[in-house]
Amino acid sequence: MTQRRVAAALAILLAAAAGLSLLHVLAARPEPVIRAQSRQLGVLPGLSKLSAAQLAALPEARYDAVIAALLPAAGAADADTAYRLKKDTVVYAADRATPTARLAARDFLGEPSVVVPVESSGDWLRVLTPARQRLPSTGANSAGTNSLGALAPAQTSAWLRADSLSSPTMLVSRIIVSVSAQTLRIIGVGSRTWPVGVGAPGTPTPVGVTGYLQARYRDAVQGQAEHPIQLTSLHSTAADEPFGGNDGGLIGIHFQASASGARSHGCIRVPLEALAAVDALPLGTLITIEG
User: How far apart are the C-alpha atoms of 145 and 141, rounded to whole Å?
Assistant: First the structure.
């Protein structure tokens, strides 16, 4: 074999060895992070993974429900958009893998349910929910009365997939209620402040929490046949049913001729002008109640 042929053969052998080495490196290299994340999302159970029967078997996170697996949501929150649900939708615990409840596409009035995301993480959104996490009576002290140190959460939340939502509505204003000052303030477009009535000492308005306007309706039983009740997603933290009915201890904003003082069952009593201003806001508008 000539010297030129020997050199050519060696070059071929070296190229083959380099190719095998490269294949070995590629096989040993970990998959790109983005592929690993995509595969992880794929194994998480979503609405498409649940049968209709499984979805229906989940408790509905509605205004009068108590669902221990929901996440308490205290403190301030921000949101600039409210949505509707495409269909009945499963919501998840903090691990975003454990189904905890379902949100119905239609609320208790038969209207499209309002959904307000307050946190996002990739394809996931944490939304405020209209149900309770527990009843105030479960935090009673040894004397059988509620302990202010063991108040039930006034607001809950859960995680859902972002592709469950549709029909966005921009939120350009929000409501701030001060219990100590007994005022309701709308900030944003056309900011105004009004004096209001708040909860009595035994049935206080919850403070240090943010909820949202979830529904509007009139109710002659509650003396509100003429003026609409602005129903929030917030609940009483001190009594299961402070009004003595079966409304889940919800906190509402409603008209009252005597809209001052600490005398309500936790609701916000407002004059007609304030009620009209709140009534003009879109459902989903946030309401923060301060001490």
Answer: 6
pTM, 2 dp: 0.79
Q: Read off the pLDDT of residues 43-84 as tens digits, 9 standing for 90 and up.
A: 344 434 788 999 999 999 999 999 999 999 999 999 999 999
